[in-house]
Design brief:
Length: 79
């Protein structure tokens, strides 16, 4: 399932969960908005709407595919 994860770089508590979701969902992308907090759609409405529109157009056109698994970094072993 295609997914676009959107976070603001000033919403520090959501950056790590955003990275986790991107890692867990093969057909996902992560957009981090600079100088933006939690309410990305309210703080940067024009940019947010453009990014979402571009994402939906790409999905609708069949261009949003799962990432190549070779691009994933190996996870370090947890002790």
């Amino acid at each position: 399932m295609p997914a676009l994860i959107v976070v603001g770089d000033e919403d520090e508590r959501c950056i790590e969960p955003g990275l986790f979701l991107k890692d867990a969902i093969p057909a996902s992308g992560l957009m981090i908005f600079p100088k933006t907090g939690h309410a990305v759609n309210l703080e940067e409405p024009d940019l947010f709407n453009q990014v979402v529109s571009d994402f939906l157009s790409c999905v609708d056109g069949g261009g949003w595919l799962p990432r190549d698994p070779r691009t994933r970094q190996p996870r370090p072993a947890v002790a």
